[in-house]
Amino acid sequence: MPSPPRADLAVRWAAALAEVIYLPRPREAVEAELAAHLEELDRHARADDPAPAAEVGRALVGSGFAIPDCLRASLAVLAPAVGSWSVETWSAVLAWFAGGFAEACKERVFDEQQLVRDAMLRARADDARDLAASEARFDAVFAASAAGMVLSDLDGAVLRVNEALETMLEHRPGTVTGRVADLFHPDDRGYLLSRYAELAGGAFASIDEETRFQSADGEPVWVRIAVTPLLDRDGRASRLATTVVNITHQRLLEYRVTYQDSHDPLTRLLNRGAFGGRLEHALESGAEVTVLHLALDDLAAVNDGVGREAGDHLLHATALRLTDLLEGRGAVLARVAGDEFAVLLPHTPDVGAVITEINAALAEAVWVEGIGIAASASVAAVRLPAAGTQPEDLLAATHIELRSLTAQGRRQWGLVDAAASRDRRAHLRLAASLPGAWEEGQLRVDGEPVVSVPSGELSAVRARLRWDHPTLGLLDEDRCRALIAETGQGVPLGHWVLTQAAARAATSGARPYVELTTEQAADPDLIAAVHSALHLCPTLELGIPVTAVCDRDSPAEDNLGVLLELDVHTVLTGFGRARGDLACLEDLPVHAVSLDPTVITRVDTADPDSLFTRTIRDLLPLVRATGTSVLAGGITTHPRLTWWTDIGVDRAHGPVFTHPTP
Prior knowledge:
Number of helices: 26
CATH architecture of the largest domain: Alpha-Beta Barrel
Structural class: alpha/beta
Radius of gyration: 38 Å
CATH superfamily of the largest domain: EAL domain
Number of domains: 4
Largest sheet: 8 strands, mixed, barrel
Strand order of the largest sheet: 13-14-16-17-18-19-20-21
Helix content: 40-55%
Shape: elongated
CATH class of the largest domain: Alpha Beta
């Protein structure tokens, strides 16, 4: 939801605080101070670094807003002010803010507790002449203290309690009698009695620790106690003074911060970090386990078609159904990404059966505003991962497998192949480093001659992208294209190749031929890049992937029309693989087609009388009958060049002609 302006939010925050506490300064000064706090919280959310928000909570206490009601009022105003941040980010910021507030409150009460303790020590140190005055001062502190206090004799009988303790433990005035042990929580009573006995016997000077008391109705109350013996005139312990500070609220806040650090706020499942910890423990212990990594197939359709709230509802329902399904199986379930869940199970040989159960559970409709929505999941599974495997490496492998599965369709599942996953991850790592290689000048453009056959005349120079990798050596064009396909660099790199080819052609006089990627062919800025290239070189030949223009009214088809108006020579690349290629050729007025490399390879290795070879041999005359020339690439030998020339190829390129031209 949109966040109100900071000034308005500060006004509302100040008003909320004014309802629970007297403002220590003029309203305008408080509002300015709160606006500064809001700016700090906003900055930490923007940096995705919530921990420093604790200092804002501490500062609020330091300004005089030091009672729990101030925190409740603050969160009531701040929690809905999510703004442009995710709920997870804002919740984390507010959790740290609340934790800082609680810690500062605790320190403030402990400071007051120290004052009480000092008063008792002064009472103990005063000589007999001032004893009456000292005890009077102690009585005043005892009665007025915000901390609870109870005086007991050395045997544990209650002598006196103050009003703060009665209020804290919800006792009616004057009803706390009997023994001090009656105030202790039953689970902590034995330990506390032994500590009190040791203190009364002089084993140590005082007690200072966190423990549990119980309220009048038996509910546990977390407290911090400080127990000090009071000495008589002879210096012997005569009574025990117990100071009690209620820290239940702080405990709850600490639990909340800890919980939010390890749980997903929407589904209440473990988050990725906590799941990684559980997985790491299982792998280090050598346990035989199975890991499932699920990705919902339908969330984007629900988010975009019905709304984000419906998508959140579906995620929550998915978490509940997975929890119910896996109950009693020793499973650990987590939400590890936006639409992804992970499951750690004891070794499960029949993974397919479990995945079928999961998809059956998710298929039942969830109703949101009268619309029944449901989910299916694609699942990557790892059975018996090797001991010592790092959790992030395992989840990276399953995510790679998920990407492969979802490319095949929906509701797919597969087992992770460790060796294939390592190779795939190395490939993706190389792809991710491509922008840096470009910036460091490791990429270059080579020229390969395109020759008219059978005359042997140079028709064009085909641009080829190469990578001089510092450790892997020279990576060829096919490898570079495969890497580019994994990134968003296809368009800018393609335009750079076009500019490089045009600049080199301006000095050589040969027409440059550049084969575009599918993304580049559909790029709205392609025509501007072509105009820039034409300024460098007046003649230009571009390859347009047939897959980019096979659909009518596609952006690539619009670009093709403009290229023809600019008198750019156009070639349909990747031709001959699909049945619709001829229909595409019939509809588009291109100058040439370039046979797909897989067609060249298959014909070169197939039986000359095979159905595929005969089909290609019959296809070329049909293409040339339309007035379109045919280009064949990757020709390796002179006999193969002769064969392709005989069946109707007009131009060719490949190793048979020459090495790459710089």
